[in-house]
Specification:
The protein is an alpha/beta fold. The chain has helices at about 10-15, 50-55, 80-85, 100-105; strands spanning about 20, 25, 35-40, 60-65, 75, 90-100, 110-115, 130, 135, 140, 145-150, 150-155. Strands 1, 2, 3, 4, 5, 6, 7, 8, 11 and 12 form a ten-stranded mixed β-sheet that branches. Helix 2 runs parallel beside helix 3. The longest helix is centred in the middle third of the chain and has 9 residues, at about 80-85.
Amino acid sequence: MAETEFMTTDLSDAHQGLRYLAPGYQDFGGTIRFHGVVKTLVTFEDNTKIRAAVEQKGDGRVLVVDGGGSMNCALFGGNLAKLAAQNGWAGIIIHGCVRDRAELAAENIGIKALASHPKKSEKRDLGTYDVTVKFSGVTIHSGDWVYADEDGVIISKQSLSV
């Protein structure tokens, strides 16, 4: 999805009842500003379910992954970014790490994560989709809306006028 015309600062000023991820997420994708309906996934040091998700049609959604904030390995890299972009995902937000920074930056998709790490994750087929996740001071449900840019990440129960 191409960058859209909105700024999280303007959305924050114009709307009440928003939730905000705590600062600290870095931009890794080729798209900095993105938004869409949330699909949640919880997994820990295993990216099998992330791959399965991005192999499916994204339809402009944002995959929000609670990776437990692990700094031990990367959950997302260049191959998955390419798949996600090709399949129409607007963005990926990972409470954890990514890798292949140059490859991520080359893809037309928004990617936010805590850090980069060179080690790949395990492949144990662990994880659960569409569950409520809690991290960085926010509770996020599948079906919420996410708005992300260089200033931060907003979560809303409904679509916001951009």
